[in-house]
Specification:
With about 100 residues, the protein is mainly alpha-helical. The protein contains five helices and no strands.
Length: about 100
């Protein structure tokens, strides 16, 4: 991930870890990249519900993803993403961590 995208993504992570309407939308955006099928997609209309700076950061990340020749995921941020799943998708977290 290039520096501009990393900075934008890290700003989004910071917002997603808080507890606001915007943070829920930002979290959905991030988690859709990580695993849309299991964690839910992202409604593009949610861009209208975040401030312009966050929308720009989302656009930066989306553009980066769209220009990759192969699928790329933010593996470096696995711990932060797991925190988001625990916070915003507790049912998915519980299901994934049930004892066998």
């Amino acid at each position: 991930m290039d520096e501009i995208t990393r900075t934008a993504f890290e700003r989004l992570l910071e917002v997603a870890r808080s507890d606001t309407g915007q943070s829920g939308r930002v979290s959905s955006f991030i988690l859709a990249w990580w695993n849309a099928e299991g964690l839910g997609g992202f409604d593009l209309a949610d861009l209208f519900a975040v401030d312009r700076g966050l929308a720009r950061d989302m656009t930066t990340v989306f553009t980066y993803i769209a220009t990759r020749n192969t699928a790329e995921y933010p593996e470096r941020y696995r711990a932060e993403l797991e925190d988001l799943i625990r916070i915003w998708r507790p049912q998915a977290w519980a299901a994934a961590n049930e004892p066998a």
